[in-house]
């Protein structure tokens, strides 16, 4: 599929820029041109398809599905984690979604299953992981994210931590926002999907370019296997360090994937690479700052500790399975 893109990158690198083949600069420039075009093609296709599917699952509809009182609480956790994959979510929507879920009477643990799954199992990361590493890695990524979300939600629910939610949250009455989602025609959904896809790419393109730029430098100037000793599967602390390193960073998943690909080439094990990516997307500092508006420090700390431990456990599991 990307053979023409590789030929284009070769022509630009060697014939137009006239960079000698085999040099470090040529390797970095060729990688940057090829990956930039490839990532943006994949990004557009993946986001368009998933956004179209998500047009049938608004946040209000998700809240209504989860607020059914009669369903088993464990089924509610599973349902919440699954809906987290397909419903629209960004860091800025975490607070209003949390308030809306609490106002609808959804249990705190179930709410957290959704809030953890939504950023952790990122649709863009899923599509790009599939395109770059294959179906096996993509499925393990989804399963691990869902298991972490479900288990974390159940633990938080069992601990009865409602007292650590800011008091004003329980006093807010959001009301039921009725949106005529079901009445949209196919053309309306397609047009809205196209507009959203273009807007999203406009928002994330800087992250993508920066991620590919760092990846291109590593590709050209850092030899294969350079990180194998300090971040390979034989270092028992690599997963913990990678998870801690990813928390204060802020990047879109689309910008992290090129780095994950290069980490693998440099000798970083798959579980360690994915732990870094998951901590960036699920425990980013900006999202923690936003959640602090609705959660007291104790609950925010418990949330970070549980999800962080889940990501670390998943990293070790990946390294054990994939070697």
TrEMBL record:
<feature type="transmembrane region" description="Helical">
    <location>
        <begin position="236"/>
        <end position="260"/>
    </location>
</feature>
<feature type="transmembrane region" description="Helical">
    <location>
        <begin position="298"/>
        <end position="318"/>
    </location>
</feature>
<keyword id="KW-1133">Transmembrane helix</keyword>
<feature type="transmembrane region" description="Helical">
    <location>
        <begin position="31"/>
        <end position="53"/>
    </location>
</feature>
<keyword id="KW-0812">Transmembrane</keyword>
<dbReference type="InterPro" id="IPR005524">
    <property type="entry name" value="DUF318"/>
</dbReference>
<comment type="similarity">
    <text>Belongs to the UPF0718 family.</text>
</comment>
<keyword id="KW-0472">Membrane</keyword>
<dbReference type="GO" id="GO:0005886">
    <property type="term" value="C:plasma membrane"/>
</dbReference>
<feature type="transmembrane region" description="Helical">
    <location>
        <begin position="204"/>
        <end position="224"/>
    </location>
</feature>
<dbReference type="InterPro" id="IPR053166">
    <property type="entry name" value="UPF0718_permease"/>
</dbReference>
<feature type="transmembrane region" description="Helical">
    <location>
        <begin position="266"/>
        <end position="286"/>
    </location>
</feature>
<keyword id="KW-1003">Cell membrane</keyword>
<feature type="transmembrane region" description="Helical">
    <location>
        <begin position="138"/>
        <end position="157"/>
    </location>
</feature>
<dbReference type="Pfam" id="PF03773">
    <property type="entry name" value="ArsP_1"/>
</dbReference>
<feature type="transmembrane region" description="Helical">
    <location>
        <begin position="74"/>
        <end position="99"/>
    </location>
</feature>
<protein>
    <submittedName>
        <fullName>Permease</fullName>
    </submittedName>
</protein>
<feature type="transmembrane region" description="Helical">
    <location>
        <begin position="111"/>
        <end position="131"/>
    </location>
</feature>
